[in-house]
Structures are given as structure tokens and as C-alpha cells.
Write the C-alpha cells for this entry.
Amino acid sequence: MPNIPNQFSEVTMEFAPGVNKEVSQNMLTALNETISKNAVAGQTIEKLWVSSAKDSHSCPSRHVSGLAVDISRVNGKKIGEHYVSDAAIRAIVDGLQAKFEMASNRRENFGPTIKKKLGQNHDVSGHVDHFHWSVNGDHSACSDVAETYRLEEEDNPQTVSQR
Ligand SMILES: [Zn+2]
């Protein structure tokens, strides 16, 4: 599996301590299609903070398979502290979530702006302090437990909120 690079099209990617940067090629492609300095009209994205990739989660989360990424800071600011009060941060988060909906193989797109799975509104708690993106791909690592969970592949980020 490739690693998330330190940069996407002039946007610096930062990583919380302990993040396992491995992601599937589908995830890498979707990130490449979504993240760029001018991805959101009228805004400049300098850096994004990855709070979790292939770490910190258990099945049935798609993080376990390298199929999901959480981002909790934009331009050095925590989404949880700035989304409501900072118009620029809100615009960037809103714009990135909208753009991810058009990315190849996009699956889950949970955040402060929208919560969608495969393009449909999806009822899931949390995700006010970060956005979670996942893609389609080999998730057989969780096949034993996925069907026992009502919410199936839902993100379960118990440990990432403070990152
Ligand atoms: Zn997540």
C-alpha cells in the first residue's frame, strides 16, 4: 500500500503522532482528485492535518483496510474549534466535502457539512471536529464482524477527536 504523501498539489499534509499513512490506491487517487491549493473557490488551502489513516480504529471501520482518512485541522486550525466561528475554515471544509463527493470510488463522506454514504444521506453520530473520507475497495479484513454491526462500516473514531 502506498503512503499518503507529504504534499498534494502545493498542499502540505501534516500527520498526528502515530498515524499509519498507508492507504489503498483508491484512497490515494481520491485524495489526489480532491486536494489542491485552490480546490475551494475564493480560499487558499495551505495545509491539512491527518488525524488518522490506517490506525486508531477497529473493524468494521474502513480505516482498518487503508480505505479511510480523517482530517481534523485546516491551515493549522482545529475544525472542532473553528468550523462555526471561522468563515474561511467553514468554507474550506464545506468545499472539500462537496468536492470529495465527485471523487473516484468515494464511499463515506462524514463531516460537519454533510454525512453521506455512496451519495445518500447517512445517519451517523459525531464528525463535528473532523471529516472522514472512505473509498470502495478490499475490506475483507473486517468481513467477520461487519455483518454483526447495525451500522456496518461506520467510522468509530474514539481516539482521534483530540488530535
Ligand atoms: Zn474516519
User: Anything to note?
Assistant: The chain is about 20% helix and 25% strand. Residues 7-146 form a domain with the Muramoyl-pentapeptide Carboxypeptidase; domain 2 fold (CATH 3.30.1380). The two ends are 24 Å apart (CA to CA). The chain has one domain: 7-146.
